[in-house]
Specification:
Blueprint lengths: L1 H34 L4 E14 L8 E10 L2 E6 L13 E7 L2 E7 L4 H26 L10 H22 L4 H8 L4 H19 L6
Helix pairs in contact: 1-2, 2-3, 3-5
Length: 211
């Protein structure tokens, strides 16, 4: 009984944290979208990078990337507001959105701290839901379903995790650069995606073969 209470408390804490992150991410993304509605775009080029965060052993170093862009023959710089696990080739292109009334105000189009909060919020909500669905399944409530909701939800989570890993780390690079960056570790997000697709298909079309 005590173990069930502890598990329930942990599930509630994870879901509350997930909802909190999701709300902040969605709200921030909405505000950013309104703020940049009148912004114009220009091509930026990777200028430099700095360490964003670093573990004691240096195995989990992330980097803040700095891009330069030119507006009206004047050069400006803008940096990512999150850490990325690799450094692209110097001179790599990125779309920059800037305020035409004040070109110093700019953002890098693509991943930002709000999109990461949305992603992590989704994960914090999805994982506890899997435990809840698993518990409901053991009680036999899904026995008369033609599809297997548990497999489908697990598949969606695995698929989203694989895409999320690539999205965060790759940040809109080419397929060739993607394999260069991840090397052998590319197999991890790919496995997440493959397993996710397999579970979704199995849960929707072959539930009777599961157990």
């Amino acid at each position: 009984m005590k173990a069930k209470i502890i598990s329930a408390v942990l599930i509630v804490i994870c879901m509350v944290c997930g909802i909190f992150m999701l709300c902040i991410g969605v709200h921030g993304s909405h505000d950013l979208s309104k703020k940049t509605k009148q912004y114009e775009t220009v091509t930026g080029y990777l200028l430099d990078y700095s360490i964003y965060s670093n573990s004691r052993r240096g195995r989990n170093t992330t980097y803040r990337l700095t891009y330069s862009y030119i507006v009206n023959d004047e050069e400006y710089i803008v940096s990512t507001d999150y850490g990325i696990g690799y450094v692209p080739q110097k001179g790599s292109e990125k779309t920059i959105m800037y305020n035409p009334d004040n070109p110093k105000e700019a953002i890098i189009l693509g991943t930002n701290r709000y999109s990461l909060l949305i992603l992590f919020g989704f994960m914090f909500i999805a994982v506890p839901l899997l435990f809840i669905l698993g518990y409901i399944y053991t009680l036999g409530y899904f026995a008369h379903f033609r599809m297997n909701p548990l497999d489908i939800v697990i598949g969606i989570v695995f698929f989203a995790m694989g895409i999320g890993i690539i999205y965060i780390q790759a940040n809109e690079i080419s397929i060739v650069e993607l394999f260069t960056v991840f090397r052998i570790w590319i197999i991890i997000p790919i496995l997440f995606i493959v397993v996710g697709i397999y579970l979704m298909i199995r849960g929707m079309f072959f539930p009777e073969k599961l157990y």
